[in-house]
Amino acid sequence: MRRSDATGARKKDTREKIELGGLIAKAGLRYEKRALLLGLLIDAADRLRGNDAERDRLAAIGVKAFGHESK
């Protein structure tokens, strides 16, 4: 059972990482350096803390980019 649980957790982790990479590509940032991408994400995380208006603004941009999807 434990081995099966560990395998399932690894598969889930891998799937999440693939999906996150897809978001980077969808945003048009596929060829940017990793340090720049990490800097963007850290800066965004800092700006989002306690700022519901900014969170809503960025979520609206994402919803528009996805089209009818709302992930």
TrEMBL record:
Pfam hit, one: TraD
Keywords noted in UniProt: Plasmid
Organism domain of life: Bacteria
InterPro entries assigned: Conjugal_tfr_TraD_a-type
Protein's name in the database: Type IV conjugative transfer system coupling protein TraD
Protein source organism: Bradyrhizobium barranii
Source lineage: Bacteria, Pseudomonadati, Pseudomonadota, Alphaproteobacteria, Hyphomicrobiales
UniProt gene name: traD
